[in-house]
Amino acid sequence: MRSTCKPVLIIVSCLLLLLSITGCNLTSTYSNIENKSSLSAPAALSQEEQTSLEEVFPKDKVIDVKITIDEAEFQDMLDNASREEYKEASVNYNGKQFDHVGIRIKGNLSLRSVVNSDSDRYSFKISFDEYVNQQYNGISKINLNNNYSDASYMREFLTYELAASVGLPTPGFSYVNVYVNEELWGFYLAVEQIDEAYLKRNFETTSGALYKAEMTGSGSDLTWLGDNLDAYTGLVQKSEKSNNDILINMLDELNNGSNYEKVLNIDNALKYIALNVAASNMDSYLGQNKQNYYLYEDQGIFNILPWDYNMAFGGFGGSNLLIDEPTQGAVADRPLVAKLLAVDEYKKQYHQVLSEMISGYLSEEHITSRIQEVKALISSQVQNDPRPFYSYEEYEQSLETLTTFIKNNVDNITKQLNGTLPSSGDGSGSGGGMGPGGGNRGMGGQRMNLNNTADKAPANNTDAIPNNNAVPNMPNASNSTTVPGAKDTEIQQNAQQNVQPEPIGGGANNGKMGGGFPEGFPGGGGFKPDGFNREETNQEGGSREAIYTGIALLLLLLSSLFVTLYKRKRL
What we know:
Blueprint: H1 2-39, H2 47-56, E1 63-68, H3 71-79, E2 87-93, E3 96-106, H4 109-115, E4 123-127, E5 141-145, H5 155-165, E6 173-180, E7 183-192, H6 196-203, E8 210-213, E9 235-237, H7 246-256, H8 266-278, E10 293-298, E11 301-306, H9 335-341, H10 344-359, H11 364-384, H12 392-417, H13 489-497, H14 534-570
Parallel strand pairs: 1-6
Antiparallel strand pairs: 1-2, 2-3, 3-4, 4-5, 5-7, 6-7, 8-9, 8-10, 10-11
């Protein structure tokens, strides 16, 4: 009995010794892989779910949304747009009829701008279950966004495809022609509301706490303001339950701790930051207004959800961002960026996501082709739009500007990734102010038309938006915003009085249209600019191969030893 156990004990001891030597590396490696795979991507859709979603938000055609409403009620809604009150209507959505549907005007800056103009091109919200218990393929609410301040009609569309390409959970979206009482009202972008259907599809649960960063509450930079939830006025609770102190615990750990994985989906957060950098979108957490994102808690772990991208690709400033310091204002005042990018492992992962974006969806070959595909889909609709903010000529010009902007932005990011340009500065951020789409200008700097005509700019309408270059003075915004590096007192005071506006919008989806993404995209390693993580990748790969080889050799030796001892005992 004793001689039989001896070889077994030798084998077990050797295996335990091997695991003690290599176990940490293996555990860390596989733990990271498992964590990333379980948290990084939205839940996979079944074929039935995908078909259901594409019926509501198709990518290969422009669908009709026909609203039938009492004329007097609709006129009252237009006359009192700021109330944002629901009116009852019938809606035929992509051929499906729904009665007793709620409809209202929605928006913030876009709403106020249209109210103070001769235009009636408002954004709308459709609520299928406002009066009766009904949904459209599980979806309760859809936003009809008016493409405010976007002459290209494409910023949101392209940005959300970019988001979906790297696995960020994105709402459904599609282009629609909106009719009111059989009159073509305008060419819009339909966007799924972030609510139960979206959460169930992406997280398989709807019981988590949901918050939205809104400018009406001054936005939120997620800095620590104490353990009183009421102090965080910029985070508006959208779920029925707050799940006790779950938000406070996250903010405490983010600001005062170091175990970020305990409270944050790191992969998701890094992709969110990368999305806004790659799309140069400062109307987000990165910008002065610290808004237009959702926080959703899934079993104690918070995810940051992208939202509202009609100001992407430079429409709200953000040209030539420092990728490791991409904030308007001190990067230390944005702990989601400062704390995560201070961890080397997270920064490398973030750089890799940026690399995948610029070599995949934003590569010159793909994005140029994609813009042309979308142009072919929507140009006739843009031309027939009865209430455009821009002329058709400005639309065409904006597409050239959009393509050039993306190309230059990709070049800037590429040079920072390969070390040709610095990726960070003195901590003061990447600056502020409006970019090429500033004020009431859209892509390419065209002035928005708020007078319902396609061939002229609004005449002396200083209420809608002051001028070509100034930023509207926001009545609900804090006047404490500062511009980093501003030395002149007058400039600083002007910056404090002219807080950047809040546009509206949202959504996209993870589908493809007209050829979809390029071959091999988005999977695979993507390209690495010269000098970017190449040595490190080789070292990691060599280390793993050495471990696996060592295990194989040791198991072979142990097997031989066991056979030898067993045969000796039998003899």
